[in-house]
Amino acid sequence: MAWPLAARAQQPVMPGVGFLDPTSLDSSGDILRAFRQGLKDTGYVEGENVAIVYRFAENQFDRLPELAAELVRRRVAVIATFASGTLAAKAATTTIPIVVATSADAVASGLVESLARPGGNFTGSTFLSLDLAGKRIDLLKDIFPQLRTLAVLSNTDHPGERSEWQTTQRAAQALGIDPVYVPFFGARELDNALTVAGNARADAILVFPEGATMVHRTKIARFAVEQRLPSMFGWSEYCDAGGLLSYGANQRATYFRLATYADRVLRGENPSDLPVEQPTKFELVLNLKTAKVLRIDVTTSILLRADKVIE
Question: Are residues 24 and 110 in the same domain?
Fold first, then answer.
């Protein structure tokens, strides 16, 4: 009996990958599948040579600090997270490597020293939302030339939010558009923010891409249709939920790539030396069903530019 016990004692412990999710398993199904597939393609089989330790906040974002602390106590080898989980993970540890997918300006929000050399225990991927802010307004005006007043729905509980608003404000004003800032702090204030947006007498609505609006994307898309507002979002999932337009990086591809960064950390690379990855391809998605409900005549040029059309 002593030999099997000794053999088991000598077996290496599987490295743990903490997956800190501000939402739920149902909400994050697609990106979680992409992340797990990325791990699989780099040689990891869950339960065989890697243990994924899941922590879901179930949209109760105030639980994130404790969930992040739990992962630290579990001594996982790396933490993967996104949206509001990013700040919780940052506060929980300065030693465990953290790979993140963020739509914020990673430098301005203090996550990394620079994209080329992060410098701390953070690295990962950025959706480049700051750089895309002006392009989203251009596209929205292309499909809705009457645009004069734009409601901008923004969760202030989001890293880099201030920079994204300032960039959006400048881009809108350069096109002669009056941007109406509609801030809210966390999902609990979303309903009130939608009421404010509805009273803004706007011609259209722009929604910053991040965790809280992503979770409630169906509610926001339905609100926009009910208010007869053309809507622009950052990720295709918003259009799948009924939004009119989205422009940005593909989330599933980003989380697949994030897994390759987790792999590099597990193989011993230092996150401070791994450049924050930037997407090279962006997709324009158009929900033609929503356009028809809003009685928007979509030009052939927009249809030809769209990477995906929902009919």
Answer: yes
